[in-house]
Amino acid sequence: MRNTATKPVKSNRAVFQGDLSAPDPIPEPGIEAAVRLMRDGRLFRYGEDRNSIPEGALLEEEFAALIGSKYCVGVNSGGCALYVALMAAGVSPGDKVLVNAFTLAPVPGAIAHAGAEPVLVDIDARFVIDVDDLDRKAVESDARFLMLSYMRGHIPDMDAVMAVCRRHDLLVIEDCAHTMGASWGGRLTGTFGDVACFSTQTFKHINSGEGGLLVTNDEDIAARALLRSGSYMLYAQHRARPGMEVFDRHRLTTPNCSMRMSNLVAAVLRPQLPLIEERNDQWRAIYDRLAPMIEAIDHLQVPVRPAKEEFVPSSLQFSIIGLKDVRIERFLGETAAHGVHVKWFGAPEPIGFTSRHEHWRYLDQEQAVPKADQVLKGLCDIRLPLSLTPEDCFVIATVLREAMAASGR
Ligand SMILES: Cc1ncc(COP(=O)(O)O)c(C=O)c1O
Predict the structure, then answer these.
(1) Which atom of ligand 1 is least distant from the CA of 82?
(2) What residues form DSSP beta bridges with 31?
(3) Ligand 1 pocket, residue 79 CB under 6 Å
(4) Does residue 202 have its Cβ closer than 6 Å to ligand 1?
(5) Cross-strand partners of 129
(6) Beta sheet of 195-199, edge-to-edge order
(7) N or C end of the chain: which has fewer CB within 10 A?
(8) Ligand 1, residues 199, 204, 360: which to mutate, most atoms within 8 A of Cβ?
(9) What are the structural domains of the chain?
């Protein structure tokens, strides 16, 4: 449904009539490719006797080229990509994995799935990993792995982060669920670490409902990931894969975990790859319009974004500064009543997609991340559907401004 402009209500307050949770539709070529495939029936990516190249193999080849990586493996979700990456990178049960404390539940979930222990690293005022705390926790924990989550698309100073990782010989897994097409200093996220994972779940930069993509330049990680994703002994049908001799080293020792990507998902995704750049430009334009209007509202602050951070904002975060929880709750009640659903990471209970580290009780609860605790108390999040018009942005900002005023009365 289209987002439309202000509708007068009794109170004369602005009301946003659109739907911030509305997904962006699948482009027609994706729909046509999916229908063609369904008519053909070859939804499963592997076959024992076939002449055509499977959609899954073509997508992996195209995505690897787009990121500039040698190898790519498609799986059935971003969370599975993270799990497969951890296992392929050599994580064993009981290993410690460093991870920034501001992330989403599937990230510590993937570490737990691998039987490993998340070690929380603090964040700074930009919502990104705190490099000094990373340095400290790497020593204290003796961890060999870092899961670097670019949560909500915020990218840390990668020169500083990678220097710490090199100093401690950390193997880096990048969680690029929110940074498809984003760069730091001209270099794409997903190319800094040893292996990187992307999500194609509906609210990400490309949409197949569920789906994940893993990229790497390491032939052993690639082969182990591909085998674990569930390739049976049909791995030769992949194209963005290492040579067959690499599989000989791993084929009999890597479990098949059946987390494959289906051809149907790949068919829906392939026509979206050429659109990423254009969509990211649209997201930047929406963010650039809305962020200054939010920044101008009392008690609301949008984080500073350094010039080197070329982010691709499918959502917008702001902090509520200097207000008690009861006032924050009133503010959020007011925004919701006027059509703008704001997610709040400081809520006492986890709601919807939003939870924070103390809600993940399977973690060691003794871990101190004081700066993250402080930041998350006031951290809010709104999704930015591509359909938002300049007028919609104005209405959303008006709703927030009026809600802030009303919450203080
Ligand atoms: C930061 C982050 N990493 C990983 C994931 C996992 O992606 P998926 O939902 O495809 O499992 C998500 C999902 O929203 C996420 O927000």
Answers:
(1) 4
(2) none
(3) yes
(4) no
(5) 123
(6) 71-75, 212-216, 195-199, 171-175, 145-149, 96-100, 117-121
(7) C
(8) 199
(9) 28-274 (3.40.640.10), 276-407 (3.90.1150.10)
pLDDT of 51: 77
Look at ligand 1, atom 8, and give the residue with the nearest C-alpha: 78
Q: How far is CA 329 from the centre of its chain?
A: 27
Task: Answer whether residue 48 shows pLDDT above 90.
Answer: no
Q: DSSP of 42-101, one letter per residue?
A: --SS--SS-SSPPHHHHHHHHHHHHHT-SEEEEES-HHHHHHHHHHHTT--TT-EEEEES
Residue nearest to atom 16 of ligand 1 (CA): 104
Give every CB contact of residue 126 below 8 A, 6+ residues apart in sequence.
Answer: 154, 156, 303, 304, 305, 306
Report the b/e string of 121-157 with b at 16+ CB within 10 A.
Answer: bbbbebbbbbbebbbebbeebebbbbbbbbbbbbbbb
d(C-alpha 331, C-alpha 401), whole Å: 10
Ligand 1 site, residue 178, Cβ cutoff 6 A:
yes
- CA angle (141, 145, 149) in 5-degree steps: 105
User: What average pLDDT score do residues 392-399 get?
Assistant: 98
Reported as a pLDDT band with limits 50, 70 and 90, residue 10 is: low
Could you report the per-residue pLDDT of 316-367, keeping only the tens digit for each? 999 999 999 999 999 999 999 999 999 999 999 999 989 999 999 999 989 9
* Cα(150) to centroid(ligand 1), Å: 10
